[in-house]
């Protein structure tokens, strides 16, 4: 953590879900119906939160999962265990989705290892909020757009040649409301 003018600035993003208390509730509460049997999904940010929940649910429905994450190896390993417990295969890839070369490699490795790509879930995201807009640095703004916006383009562009009729690209976004 880095202190700034009486405020604390988060420095170690995105963070480890394994360290959260209480733990997020991601477990599916229903029996799968096989709706995604034989499909392969690549999910960014699948090491925790919404990404982990999507990976668990897609695996329960029969999909094999490529788990893309930045650097939380313990969290990604837990997601891989969850996928395996559903009887599905997983591929775990660490890297920066804001890097177009990593995005291209992740798609290629997914297709090579899992045989195809049917669903791309652009879920990874980060934010570097600051109470005062004047305090947001160029670096904070660029990093946020690199991860949250550019990655959707890079991954979709790399995935497109592998997607067939009936495939899907799902883009997740979020926003933070602030009072003025």
TrEMBL record:
UniProt family annotation: Belongs to the short-chain dehydrogenases/reductases (SDR) family.
Name the residue ranges with Basic and acidic residues bias. Answer: 7-28
Its lineage opens with: Bacteria, Pseudomonadati, Pseudomonadota, Alphaproteobacteria, Sphingomonadales
| Chain positions covered by the region annotation Disordered | 1-31
Under what name is this protein listed?
Answer: Putative oxidoreductase
Q: Which organism is it from?
A: Caenibius tardaugens NBRC 16725
- What InterPro entries does the record point to? NAD(P)-bd_dom_sf, SDR_fam
Q: Supply the alphabetized keyword list.
A: Oxidoreductase
* Molecular-function annotations in GO: oxidoreductase activity, acting on CH-OH group of donors
Entry keyword annotation includes Methyltransferase: no
């Amino acid at each position: 953590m880095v202190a700034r003018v009486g405020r604390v600035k988060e420095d170690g993003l995105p963070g480890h879900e394994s360290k959260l208390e209480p733990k997020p509730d991601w477990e599916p509460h229903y029996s799968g119906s096989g709706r995604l049997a034989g499909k392969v999904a690549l999910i960014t940010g699948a090491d925790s939160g919404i990404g982990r929940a999507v990976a668990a649910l897609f695996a329960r429905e029969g999909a094999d999962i490529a788990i893309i994450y930045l650097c939380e190896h313990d969290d990604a390993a837990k997601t891989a265990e969850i996928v395996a417990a559903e009887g599905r295969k997983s591929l775990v890839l660490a890297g920066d989705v804001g890097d177009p070369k990593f995005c291209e490699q992740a798609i290629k490795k997914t297709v090579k290892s899992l045989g195809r790509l049917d669903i791309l879930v652009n879920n990874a995201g980060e934010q570097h909020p600051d109470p005062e807009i004047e305090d947001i640095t160029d670096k904070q703004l660029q990093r946020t757009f690199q991860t949250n916006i550019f990655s959707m383009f890079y991954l979709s562009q790399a995935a497109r040649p592998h997607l067939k009729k009936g495939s899907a690209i799902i883009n997740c976004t979020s926003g933070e409301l602030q009072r003025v």
